[in-house]
From TrEMBL:
<keyword id="KW-0472">Membrane</keyword>
<keyword id="KW-1015">Disulfide bond</keyword>
<dbReference type="InterPro" id="IPR055355">
    <property type="entry name" value="ZP-C"/>
</dbReference>
<feature type="domain" description="ZP">
    <location>
        <begin position="161"/>
        <end position="479"/>
    </location>
</feature>
<protein>
    <recommendedName>
        <fullName>ZP domain-containing protein</fullName>
    </recommendedName>
</protein>
<dbReference type="InterPro" id="IPR001507">
    <property type="entry name" value="ZP_dom"/>
</dbReference>
<dbReference type="InterPro" id="IPR042235">
    <property type="entry name" value="ZP-C_dom"/>
</dbReference>
<dbReference type="Pfam" id="PF00100">
    <property type="entry name" value="Zona_pellucida"/>
</dbReference>
<feature type="signal peptide">
    <location>
        <begin position="1"/>
        <end position="20"/>
    </location>
</feature>
<feature type="transmembrane region" description="Helical">
    <location>
        <begin position="522"/>
        <end position="544"/>
    </location>
</feature>
<keyword id="KW-1133">Transmembrane helix</keyword>
<keyword id="KW-0812">Transmembrane</keyword>
<keyword id="KW-0732">Signal</keyword>
Length: 561
């Protein structure tokens, strides 16, 4: 945000540039030049240098923050003169323009420093340039921040006996208020750090006034800093999503985007197949801000899209080399309100690429096969189907649990899904062709107790598809929520329906003492669950009614044991 300027003043001489042994002075400014194809930032650094020779120039380097590097450097001579004090041969002003590549638009510091000034009467020896570069996007202009600039001719004569006023040409392309102050940070902004006696500096107008001083043949060295100040409160935003200003409310769904169904829960495991596209649908809403964009990270060739409902879709097609690999895909949704931008929470899903497997849901166990037996570590595949006579409905699985009895009120239970959130660490959600099916799989899990079998039970409900006011749309949620409706409103969701499957138990092993034994101990027993149930729904225009309070059981593939 700051630009440096250094001035030299003699009784009969005012100049404004620099020299590494014979340095007269200089100025610097920087400009944002857009982005490169790889997302890095292009910057132009423009400096004017005055030395006692036309061959010298400043060397600029980054010493902190978002450091980049110079790509090109072009120097050109502007002016020169031999009409200098008797102890100096000449001065030569040149301009150097460098192009830089920066990792991002975050702030950083540039510097050029060395020794030595030409002989000065106020003991300025070392010269120091220090510029703070900040290309954050401004909330007032919606463009990258620009640096202030200043201009002054290289050589000015000041009669000793004549008070003079010099209005430095300081300005800012953003329209900010520009101030000029004397350097105060020794070793960075200045070497002497004291305004010479006989001079006054009006910081707000960048005006330097000379009154009077005693005679001396040497030159005064002036070390000044130019800074810009916004005329109102503004915010700077960076492409990496760094810290933003306060939001009027931290409640999700007001200003901050809130995820809704069918957005997957954080940590959801998704099974993918080679050469088959995976689709992750993301929906977010906000009352007082407008949903604008989705920011995501994932494997090569993952893409984002926006559908006709203005929801987001992340798509990825695994290649042959991705087989047996796991890839995280993380995302946030952004919204805007005026000049302010907000982000939702971050969610990540884990995509596991496996061989072709839709046939795992194709065959079914006979109801006469129960109880089913499994080995610890087996992956068990489960599916719930819903049928409805009304279009535009969707099914929501609120909870799935394991219990030793076919009783939803029995405690304790082992939670697989709770409040729409994934609980069991081995749980994987599998994609389906429509929103009236729900497929998932789990590995053998731990269940406390001394029971030799368990049942898997789920609580499901039907909702009007796409309606943000339904429990289905809320997805994973641990908060207490009441669906309040006025009497004249149509019912937009059904009640909860309990479905159960079982019993399931571990395969028995041969007991070395004879007979058979179940793999149990006094505190822990391992079981695996398997479920394929159909929830029948008859849906009217106003209300939903369940076809049956119990599930219609259907078998799972026999090859899964």
């Amino acid at each position: 945000m700051a630009s440096a300027v250094f001035l030299l003043l003699q009784l009969l001489l005012l100049t404004s540039q620099v020299s590494a042994s014979h340095h007269w002075g200089g100025t610097t400014s920087f400009t944002y030049k857009g982005r490169n194809p790889d997302g890095t930032v292009k910057m132009s650094l423009r400096t004017r240098d005055t030395y006692d020779s036309c061959n010298n120039y400043h060397y600029w380097y980054c010493y902190g923050g978002n450091c980049g590097y110079a790509n090109t450097r072009v120097r050109s001579q502007i002016d020169s003169s031999s009409n200098t004090p008797s102890y100096e041969s000449q001065w030569c002003e040149s301009e150097t323009v460098e192009t830089w590549t920066l990792p991002s638009d975050k702030p950083f510091n540039l510097r050029a420093a060395s020794c030595c000034w030409i002989d000065t009467r106020n003991s300025v020896v070392n010269w120091n340039y220090d510029s703070q570069v900040d290309f954050g996007t401004r909330s007032d202009t919606r463009k990258p921040n620009k640096s202030p600039d200043i201009a002054i001719v290289p050589f000015l004569r000041v009669p000793q006996n004549c008070p003079r006023t010099y209005r430095l040409a300081a300005f800012d392309p953003d329209g900010d208020r520009v101030r000029c102050r004397y350097g105060s940070n020794p070793g960075y902004e200045c070497d002497n750090c004291h305004l010479p006696s006989g001079f006054q500096l009006d910081q707000d107008s960048c005006t330097l006034r000379y009154q009077s001083t005693y005679s001396d043949y040497r030159i005064f060295g002036f070390e000044m800093v130019v800074e810009d100040y916004a005329r109102g409160t503004i915010d700077l935003f960076y492409s990496d999503g760094s810290m933003d200003p306060p939001v009027p409310s931290c409640e999700e769904g007001l200003y901050l985007p809130k995820f809704e169904s069918p957005t997957p829960s954080h940590g959801t495991q998704i099974t993918a197949e080679v050469n088959k596209e995976v689709e992750i649908r993301v929906k977010a809403t906000a009352v007082y801000s407008s949903i604008q964009n989705i920011v995501f990270s994932g494997p090569t060739n993952v893409t984002k899209h926006r559908d006709t409902n203005n929801d987001f879709v992340i798509r990825w097609t695994p290649a042959e080399d991705d087989l047996e690999e796991q890839y995280p895909i993380c995302f946030v949704v952004e919204s805007v309100n005026g000049n302010s931008a907000y982000q939702s929470e971050m969610r990540c899903v884990l995509v596991e690429v496996q061989k072709h497997q839709n046939n795992r849901f194709g065959a079914m166990f006979s109801p006469n096969s129960y109880p089913l037996e499994y080995n610890v570590g087996d992956r068990i595949y489960m599916q719930l189907d819903a049928s409805s006579s009304v279009n535009n409905t969707e099914m929501f699985v609120e909870s799935c649990r394991a219990a030793p009895y076919d009783n939803p009120n029995y405690h304790p239970t082992y939670s697989i899904i709770e409040n729409g959130c994934n609980v069991d660490p081995t749980l994987q959600i599998h994609s389906t062709a429509n929103n009236k099916e729900f497929r998932f799989s789990i590995e053998a899990f731990k269940f406390i107790g001394l029971h030799d079998q368990v049942y898997i039970s789920c609580t499901v409900m039907m909702c009007e598809a796409g309606n943000p006011n339904t429990r289905c749309s809320r997805g994973c949620s641990n908060s207490t929520w009441h669906n309040v409706r006025r009497k004249r409103e149509a019912v937009i969701e059904s009640g909860k329906h309990f479905v159960s499957q079982g019993p399931l138990r571990l395969k028995r092993e041969a007991d070395p003492r004879g007979g058979s034994a179940v793999n149990l101990n006094l505190n822990m027993m391992f079981v695996a669950g398997c479920l394929l149930a159909a929830v029948g729904m008859i849906c009217g225009v106003i209300i939903y009614k369940t076809k049956t309070s119990r599930a219609k059981y259907q078998p799972l593939p026999t090859h899964e044991s």
